[in-house]
Amino acid sequence: MNNSIIDLIGNTPLVKSTKLMTKPGVELYFKLEGQNPGGSVKDRAAYNMIKSALDRGDITRTTKLIEATSGNTGIALAMIAGIFGLDIELVMPENSTIERVQTMRAYGAKVILTDSDVGIEGARDYAEDKMNSGDYFMLNQFGNEDNWKAHYKTTGPEIWKDTHHKITHFVSSMGTTGTIMGTSTYLKEKNPEIQIVGVQPTDDARIPGIRKWPKEYLPSIFDAKKVDRVMEVNEDEAIKTARSLAEHEGIFAGMSSGGAAAAAIKLCEELENAVVVSIVCDRGDRYLSSELFEK
Prior knowledge:
Belongs to the cysteine synthase/cystathionine beta-synthase family. Its cofactor is pyridoxal 5'-phosphate. This protein is of the alpha/beta class. Helices cover 38% and strands 18% of the residues. It contains nine helices and ten strands. Helix 2 (72-84) links the parallel strand 3 (64-68) and strand 4 (87-93). Helix 1 (42-56) packs across helix 5 and helix 5 packs across helix 7.
C-alpha cells in the first residue's frame, strides 16, 4: 500500500520492442516514463528539486516559485508543489498544447503564456526577470543539480537492475539534459563501456521536448563528456516513429519519445549483440490537440 502519490514516482516498466526492432541478437527496450503519476519522466526531477530545496531550507511553505517550461516539467512541478502546499507560477510559450496548460492549472498552478516567437528561451527570460525582482524563487531546472541527481538516484539504478546489468546502450532525447546526465553518471559507474547516446533535432526541426540550445541558453548541468554520441532526428522521423510506437507496439507517447525511438532503431540497425534502452518520456494524450496523430 502506498501512503502518497509521491510513492508512485519511478519504478516505471521496461518493455521489449517486438515489432519495430526484431534484429537477431539486438534487444531494444522502452522505459515507459508516462507511467509516472504526473505522466512523464519529469516527475522524478520535480520531486527531487522541490523536496531537496525544502530540506535544505532554500524554500519554505510560503515561498512563491516560478519556472519556465515547455510542458512536462511544468506539469510535474505543479503536481509536486500542490502536494507540498506551495504556490507556483509556470511560464511557457503560448503555442504549447492546451492539454498541458489545462493540466497545470488543474493541479493549482498559475500559468503565464509568453510570445511563441521567442520560444522557450523567451519564457526563460521572463521567469528570470520575475525572479530578479526578489519576489520569487526559481528552481531553474536547466542549472539545478537536483535535476540530474534524481536520475542518478532512480532512473539509472532501475535500468541497471531491470536489464540484469546487460545494458550496452542508453538513448535519451536531450532537453534540459537532466535525464541523460544523471542516468549516464550512474551507468558509467557500473560499466564504463556502456554507450550513452543523446538525441537532438536537426537544425530545421521543431520537436517539443528536444532542443539544440543556442550557446547562451545551454543548460549548465550539461556535461558533454557524459554523452558518447549525439544522433540527430528530423520532425518527420519523430512523428512517424511516435505513430508507429502507438500502432505497432501499443506505446502511446509524444513526439520527443518518437524522436528518441527513431534514433534508437537506427542505432540498433548498426549493432550486433546489444541491449539498448530508450526513454519514452511521456504519454501521447498530451498531444491530441496537435497534429502529431492526425493522418
